[in-house]
Amino acid sequence: MRTAKLLDALMPRTRQQVLGALLLRPDRGWFGRELARHLGLQPSSLQRELAALTEAGILTQRREGKQVYYQADPSCPILGELQGLLLKTAGLVDVLRKHLKPLAPDIACAFVYGSVARAEELSDSDVDLFLIGDVKPSALANGLEQASQRLARTVNPTVLSSQEFARCVRAKDRFVLSVLERPKLFVQGSSHELDELAGGAAGRPGRRRSS
After folding, report:
1. How far is 167 from 90, CA to CA, in rounded Å?
2. Angle at CA 62, nearest 5°, toward 38 and 10?
């Protein structure tokens, strides 16, 4: 069963969207109309969700002039768990997967690395995407631009063919090996498939599966 369907069973889709926007960018505050525009929803449909999540201690609110801003509450005892769940479901991974889907047959493996995968990102951190396959960067441009707009973060891709990737591993390329040794969120493929692409030489430490 897809993890997105699991989350659908736990909470309404609007709440998923609100939590995904606020909890995955915890340093940023949103006012109601701005959040509604970002999510493509009517402001009136968000008020009940924002109020309920604030009352539950998941969000905080502050007033600046006529605007009320909502933000992830850093003191929420389950904030980390919620962020991890959302990354795997309503958050970043599913957004990227959706916008890469037209090119999926040509992608051998794709994963997020860097500060986002390590859960150390700031509100302005880029999403570092490592993609292995027979895909030209120009073919990715439109989909990744849409993903960037949806996530309100720049998606920064590194693209290598399967042959180039294997060559870099054999040559012990410092950048490639550092990526392999650190946490990852898989958008397409798996750690097993990544090892096969690397000829069994891919780094094993620090993996995080997306589902």
Report:
1. 35
2. 55
pTM reported for the whole predicted model: 0.63
Tens of pLDDT, residues 136-162:
888 999 999 998 887 778 999 999 999
pLDDT in tens, 98-134: 899 999 999 999 999 998 888 676 666 789 999 999 9
Domains 3-83 and 92-197 alike in fold? no
Q: Which residue in this structure is represented by tokens 């998941």?
A: 58
Pick the CATH number of 3-83 from 2.120.10.30, 3.90.190.20, 3.40.50.80, 1.10.10.10: 1.10.10.10
Residue written as token pair 């290598």: 160
How long, in residues, is the chain? 211
